Amino acid sequence: MGNNPQTLKEMQREIDDYINQFKSGYFSPLSQMARLTEEVGELAREINHTYGEKQKKATELPNSVKEELGDVLIATIIMANSFDIDLEETFKENMVKFNQRDKHRFERKDEK
């Protein structure tokens, strides 16, 4: 697989290969949801520190929005794998929905 997956399918496969090397395998859906929620909270905290009024304490290590967003992505892929959800297919289905439902929801750049 390599260290540079190019598609969601490859990312899902790489994470599945990683998790399946352990006896415990995938955690329960509730544990996965707790982890995803934790990661989203860490992303929110980092965004608040970077763009909000609440600055980090001098004793806190610097972090990044990129790193926290990556953790959210990994937790999402793990959850999708455990539910046997193809994220590429899901993405395509959702884009069809967005392009139909939200077609006139926001002012478009090309409209006067």
From TrEMBL:
Transmembrane intervals: none
Domain NTP pyrophosphohydrolase MazG-like: 27-106
Sorted UniProt keywords: Hydrolase
Any Pfam family matching the protein: MazG
Stored Gene3D superfamilies: MazG-like
Highest taxon in the source lineage: Bacteria
Recorded GO MF terms: hydrolase activity
The keyword Transport is annotated on this UniProt entry: no
Descriptive protein name: Nucleotide pyrophosphohydrolase
